[in-house]
Design a protein that fits this description.
By secondary structure, the chain is of the alpha/beta class. It is about 35% helix and about 15% strand. The chain folds into three domains: about 130 residues, Barwin-like endoglucanases, CATH 2.40.40.20; about 300 residues, Rossmann fold, CATH 3.40.50.740; about 210 residues, Dimethylsulfoxide Reductase, domain 2. The protein is built from 33 helices and 33 strands. Strand 30 and strand 31 form a beta hairpin.
Length: about 775
């Protein structure tokens, strides 16, 4: 199955390739931030807007979920944060005249980049059955259309309600309330695609699916592992925290198949040394691991720790912590001792000497933090991989200790907060009990569909209405052909969006686009100006207040959209919740009061979040070494050593972001840290692998994904780039390569698509044979 790219993605006549950079940020980062912002917003608007990003009286960056410290710089944003703000605060507009001029079929031929560059949506738009163009529609009519379709369903489970991580806490809470009032738990969200494996592993092992560290812990750590993560592009402000830790004496081990510029050297543009000096070398040890080999690495480190304890009893492991606070140590240690070096070296692609060198760094460190991102979470064995990292930290008591702990770095602002607010297809009984008590109804108890199961259900005709509160579902999900076909089988697709994207061109029998306010914009409701709240990667909850005039008078806030739909769709339903939807839409304080009575840790929510900087949610493992697991303790686990078996002549592909990209939003066509400019259809391959495959740098190939018994998928026409990635591995950008990720290839337990372990062969374009 070959999926042709949109025509505007194919032309790479402007593509140029140079050497990868060896540092991140510095003056080029500042220049790019201002240049991009100026193009989108103009000079004055750029200055006024960027100075409000991540400030205590400003708005939360709509990009990543990296936290802010108590003391903040006047320019508390990074290059990609500035781009994210500029994309939302742009002066460009997509009006009804635009849709009259461009049919849906024509828009479907445009690239994701082109679509995103058209600007902000200004009016609700409706695509009628059989129509070729969207037309403007009133808000009242949009609610009537959606309510009508929902009323026609045979079961509430024939609708599914997706959420993007950009959604604030207040909107997320009323959204999940609406969905459960309708009678379903079909609440897939972007967590299903990224950190679901982290949540599953951490919930099982320490009892809470969130990280246990603060910024202060990173600053106080002796040793920091950065695993499967590219902070220079995806979480650039993390580099400042790593720099501070380094200057306090910490060492950093980077584990990644690709050398990433930000982890090599960081030139902090907020400091003279980052502007005119050499900056700070961050990585002390770069373990260029084979894709999927992380479990084997940490298993080997755990075995070495056990052996070191045997050699010098009482000096290596934290026996008092293990005895008092953990369960399962005996079974874990017996299994790990059986680890064979040949298996470890094959799975990791590393030298034994390097692993032993890292082990010596571990022995010399009292406080250890392990950070990770999607490089760990999107493999078939991702959950065991992360459980093995927890084993590693438990051995020396590195959870619940200052300067130590688990640090999953979330990739989207408030994706963690949405889950806290109840955006979850498998809600706990305790949450449902509290929700039902507060609103006087019986929430549904059966588990709902996650992202992958929603696609399957649409494909099979079991979901007929698809509603997305933010995001770009068609581009974010795996198996592009299968996902698009599934969406087109529905009766109605609804997209709540700030900007034009691919999902607006992949519709059900009829479709709606509902334009919403962005984070940057002032939110005026019946009770006056409103603010929303968000939760960052380290469980801190704070306010976000937009300041810009809305892009159009026809926009509504996400809260207003959800409450307006709820009032219409639930009207006259017997046995439903008692909810004053209109009052909640007019005053978000009333929503926060309800959250305070339903969600643990949010007592006195409205008053506490009005404090500058907000508050930090309780975390038992971090705060008091209490572990709310089935055993009442932190659980050691037994994790079978697994590695991908790759046939001769094949490589393991990981899908990655470019530097001019955030999730599915494409800011530009450059990836300057990797030396790529002017194009995106590239595949990065080690020179030795190219030689073995009979290919040369700059050849053009089709990426042929191989899965199961002869099942293949094709992403056509990629330019080969000789690149210092790990041997046997390659990398290419998503969403262009999402077509290669099979819908049924998912992580065990978490059901996350395996976007970091796709078996591919590179078929030369001169050879069109299958």
């Amino acid at each position: 199955m070959a999926v042709r790219p949109p025509e505007h993605d194919v032309d790479d006549s402007g593509l140029s390739v140079g050497p990868p950079q060896t540092y991140a940020a510095g003056i080029p980062g500042v220049v790019q931030s201002l240049r991009h912002s100026g193009r989108q917003m103009g000079a004055r608007r750029t200055l006024l807007t960027l100075l409000k990003v991540n400030q205590k009286d400003g708005f939360d960056c709509p990009g990543c979920a990296w936290p802010e410290g108590d003391s903040r710089h006047a320019a508390e944003f990074c290059e990609n944060g500035a781009k994210a703000v500029a994309e939302e605060a742009t002066l460009r507009r997509v009006t009804p005249d635009f849709f009259a001029a461009h049919s849906v079929a024509e828009l479907a031929e445009r690239s994701d980049y082109w679509l995103g560059q058209q600007g902000r949506l200004t009016h609700p738009m409706y695509l009628a059955p059989g129509a070729e163009h969207y037309r403007p529609v009133s808000w009242e009519e949009t609610f009537d259309i959606i309510a009508g379709e929902l009323a026609e369903l045979d079961s509430p489970d024939e609708a599914s309600f997706y959420t993007s991580g950009r959604t604030g806490n207040e909107a997320a809470f009323v959204y999940q309330l609406l969905v459960r009032a309708l009678g379903t738990n079909n609440l897939p969200d972007c967590s299903n695609l990224c950190h679901e494996s982290s949540g599953a592993a951490l919930t099982e092992t320490i009892g809470i699916g969130k990280g246990s560290v603060s910024l202060e812990d990173l600053h106080a750590s002796d040793l920091i592992f950065v695993v499967g993560q590219n902070p220079g592009t995806n979480h650039p402000r993390m580099l400042s925290a790593l720099e501070r830790a380094k200057r306090a004496g910490a060492r950093i081990v980077t584990v990644n198949p690709l050398p990433e510029a930000g982890l090599l050297r960081f030139k902090n543009p907020q400091k003279p040394s980052g502007v005119i000096g050499r900056g700070t070398q961050l990585t002390d040890e770069f373990a260029q691991i084979r894709l999927g080999g992380d479990l084997a690495l940490f298993r080997a480190l755990n075995r070495l720790l056990l052996l070191a304890e045997e050699e010098t009893p009482g000096t290596v492991l934290d026996h008092s912590f293990i005895t008092e606070h953990t369960h399962g140590f005996a079974d874990f240690s017996a299994d790990v001792r059986a680890t064979d070096w040949p298996d470890v070296l094959e799975a990791t692609g590393l030298e034994r000497e390097q692993i032993e060198r890292i082990h010596r760094m571990v022995l010399g460190s009292e406080r250890i933090v392990v950070c990770w991102a999607m490089g760990l979470t999107q493999h078939k064995h991702s959950v065991p991989m992360i459980r093995e990292i927890v084993n590693f930290l438990l051995l020396r008591g590195n959870i619940g200790r200052p300067g130590a702990g688990v640090c999953p770095v979330r990739g989207h602002s408030n994706v963690q907060g949405d889950r806290t607010m109840g955006i979850y297809e498998k809600p706990s009984e305790e949450f449902l009990d509290a929700l039902g008590k507060e609103f006087g109804f019986a929430p549904p108890r059966a588990h709902g569909y996650d992202v992958v199961d929603t696609i399957r259900a649409m494909r099979d005709g079991r979901v007929k209405v698809f509603f997305a509160l933010g995001g770009n579902f068609a581009s974010a999900t795996p198996d592009t052909a299968a996902t698009e076909a599934a969406l087109r089988r529905t009766a109605l697709t609804v997209q709540v969006s700030t900007k034009l994207n691919r999902s607006h061109t992949v519709t059900g029998r009829r479709a709606l686009i509902l334009p919403t306010l962005g984070r940057t914009e002032a939110d005026m409701q019946a009770a006056g100006p409103q603010f929303v709240t968000v939760e960052d990667s380290m469980s801190a909850v704070h306010a976000s207040t937009g300041t810009l005039p809305p892009a159009s008078p026809h926009l509504r806030s996400e809260v207003a959209i959800v409450c307006g739909l709820a009032e219409r769709a639930l009207a006259g339903r017997a046995g439903g919740p008692q909810v004053p939807w209109r009052e909640l839409a007019g005053d978000y304080t009333l929503i926060r009061d309800r959250i305070a009575r339903v969600v643990p840790g949010f007592g006195d929510f409205d008053r506490r979040v009005r404090r500058p900087g907000g508050f930090v949610l309780p975390h038992g493992p971090r705060d008091e070494r209490s572990f709310p697991t089935a055993t009442g303790k932190a659980n050691f686990t037994v994790n079978r050593l697994e590695g991908l078996r790759v046939p001769e002549g094949r490589l393991i592909l990981q899908t990655v972001r470019s530097h001019d990209q955030y999730n599915t939003t494409i800011y530009g066509l450059d990836d300057r840290y990797r030396g790529i400019r002017g194009g995106r259809r590239v595949v990065l391959v080690h020179p030795d692998d190219l030689a073995a495959l009979g290919l040369d740098d700059a050849d053009h190939v089709d990426l042929v994904g191989e899965y199961g018994d002869g099942e293949t998928r094709v992403a056509p026409d990629f330019r080969v780039v000789a690149y210092p990635t790990a041997r046997g591995c390659c990398a290419a950008y998503f969403p262009e390569t999402n077509v290669l990720v099979p819908l049924d290839s998912t992580a065990d337990i978490s059901n996350t698509p395996t976007s970091k372990s796709v078996i591919v062969r590179l078929r030369p374009r001169r050879d069109e044979r299958a």
